[in-house]
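Our preliminary data section would be incomplete without showing what the modeling component actually yields. Below, a chain of 331 amino acids is followed by its predicted structure, encoded as tokens that our downstream tools consume directly.
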Amino acid sequence: MKICPCFAAPGKPKSIRFPWPQEKVLSCFQTRDLTCIMATGVVAGDGKAYIAAFWRERRTSPTPTVTSEEALYEISLDGSNHFRKIADAQPNQPPAILNPQSTRAAFEMFKDGKFVVSIYAVPEWKLLHTWDLAKLMQTHCPDCNPLSYGWLADGKRLYTELGLAGEEDEDSSPASHPGTYFLSEDGADLGSVSPQTGALQLDGYIHPKYIERQFLGQLPDGSDLFLDHAVKKGGPFSELHPYLVVANSDPKAQKQFPLKFAIGRVVPSPSGKYLAYVEDRLTPNYQTERHLWVKDLASGEDKELFAAPPPKPPTSPEPNVTLSILGWINN
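Predicted structure:
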């Protein structure tokens, strides 16, 4: 298999595939006049990518003109450069979030003062459900906003992480309970992640109360992934140590991996043996480099596969580039 990161410069997205033991990683690409405009997209298990893009058409007669259309596209990753339009893009179009089985896609958008979730059947892209997160938020955390969302391993349930917004943290009502909540694809409330699930257990360390752990998703076997932090007992609270926690129904089987840096979005391989993620690394001159990493979940070993250069000076003729992960593909 291959892991699929997106490495794109304006007008010149490129396809990059990184070998990995039995499983491999990929990137964004250029297909004739189709220009990738989003750094985030997804890859289906059958070797297709779903991204927002511009279709640019160039005409030389009767007068030279260039027209463009923004839309969601399905792009084949077999080298054929084949693509098809799925739907018109919405303002501030978010990326599609596919379930692990590549049979459903979810979009969450803030539209007309509402957090609207739309569920589509894939590959037909038929709209199945549309619902508002307001009911869940009013029930569990009126002072919260959704921070992240995605599919669980079974491909039938979704999760959303609710967090207190800005200064509301101090002024929130007792009825507000930030955390990770589960929903069915038609929006039904299915409960939440227990505070005990995946709690970091480390001798000589404590969990600081001022930072919440983050639910990162699930492995194919249903194990939960968390980003958590700890500080040494008696040490300064400013010295946070990030950890990746892998938890399942057996607390004794819980795994905890120290991290070099806090991670955000993670992309598990289909086997559940590896995690791909991107590091935002600050350079000595305060620029940001994006580095692609893969973690072996058996040994805990991290391996860096690729680094995108930091932004160039405004006077540089070379375009800036960005790097993000699309997913894992078979090949």
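Confidence is low (pLDDT under 50) at residues 7-16, 26-34. The radius of gyration is 21 Å. Preliminary results of this kind motivate Aim 1 of the renewal.
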